[in-house]
Amino acid sequence: MKIRQTIKNLLNQEDLNFLLTNRLPRKWLTEFMGRFSKIEQPWVRDASIAIWKYFSDLDLSEAKKSHFTSMHDCFTRELKDGARPIDMDAGVMSSPVDAFVGAHGRIEAGQLFQAKGFPYTLEDLIGTGEDASAWRDGYFVTLRLSSSMYHRFHAPHDCTVERVRYFSGDTWNVNPIALKRVEKLFCKNERAFLRTRLNSGPFIGQTIALVPVAAILVASIRLHFLDVLFHLRYKGANPIDCAAQFVKGQEMGWFQHGSTIVVLAPPGFRLASNLDTGSQVRMGQALMHGAG
Predict the structure, then answer these.
(1) Is the pLDDT of residue 65 over 70?
(2) Is 151 an annotated catalytic residue?
(3) Does 15 participate in catalysis according to the annotation?
(4) Pairing assessment for the beta strands 191-198 and 251-255 based on DSSP bridges
(5) How far apart are CA 292 and CA 168, in angstroms?
(6) What is the pLDDT of residues 108-118, one digit of tens each?
(7) pTM of the predicted model as reported, rounded to 2 decimal places
(8) Three-state SS across the chain?
(9) Residue 259 annotated among the catalytic residues of the structure
(10) d(CA 161, CA 198)
(11) What digits encode the pLDDT tens for the residues 139-165?
(12) Exactly one of 154, 157, 231, 257 is catalytic; which is it?
């Protein structure tokens, strides 16, 4: 226990944490981890998961299965039925993921913040070829997944995904330490943009966006409704127009590890009153309320 706490204390030192997670060859490490995590040899699997548990708060009691074929299988685990109740209030947009709430607030003249003093623009995030007018004076919230969290993401409301654009990029760490040091970090990393139209309740017809952002040791995003795996070497169609319908709480896809989702909402939305920066939200819990 003393060794574990000592190592955790060292990693909590900002300079050392930033050095270890960002100044090493990020893309190489990410591709290596992608291959290593899928090794199904029992002792590799068991040792990897044991080390992961030792240095994190990994809790597998809610997992649908108790045996995993690999560390990757554990990363992308499903939960038991009913483990995440969905807030079905038609006036609520639920959280698509288990996460810590990061920067959030009004999008003023198309500008967002990844951390205090570190702005970026909608165009930086979703590309100049996309119409960002729906969110220009709207609201954003950043949801950060830790490595031990449930890594699948779900529909925040009844909706149709109309367009997906993939951005290959870097693999900077997305923890608060890096967000305070690397300008426009989310706009540099690998990410996907999901333009989504809401289909029911007071929000019907309004457009939101989900922007899953990958990070070091992650760098791949799977969407159920597309027969592709977005990763650093992806060279396929981009953007992709689609008409994938989801009901609130339905699974949309997953990260290969933990990362971040930026949610963009039109004017009138606000973060749920019991949440603020640093608070934890679970998939299905009320994330935002908005006027019809």
Answers:
(1) yes
(2) no
(3) no
(4) unpaired
(5) 36
(6) 999 999 988 89
(7) 0.87
(8) CHHHHHHHHHHCCHHHHHHHHHCCCHHHHHHHHHHHCCCCCHHHHHHHHHHHHHCCCCCCCCECCCCCCCHHHHHCCCECCCCCCCCCCCCEEECCCCEEEEEEEECECCEEEEECCEEEEHHHHHCCCCCCHHHCCCEEEEEECCCCCCCEEECCCCEEEEEEEEECCECCCCCHHHHCCCCCHHHHECEEEEEEEECCHHHCCCEEEEEEECCCCCCEEEECCCCCEEECCCCCCCCEEEEEEECCCCEEEEECCCCEEEEEECCCEEECCCCCCCCEECCCCEEEEECC
(9) yes
(10) 9
(11) 999 999 988 899 899 999 999 999 999
(12) 154
Of 98, 104, 147, 231, the catalytic one is 98
Q: How far apart are the first and last CA of the chain?
A: 52
* Per annotation, catalytic residue among 70, 94, 95, 259: 259
Q: Give the tokens for residue 101.
A: 């709430």
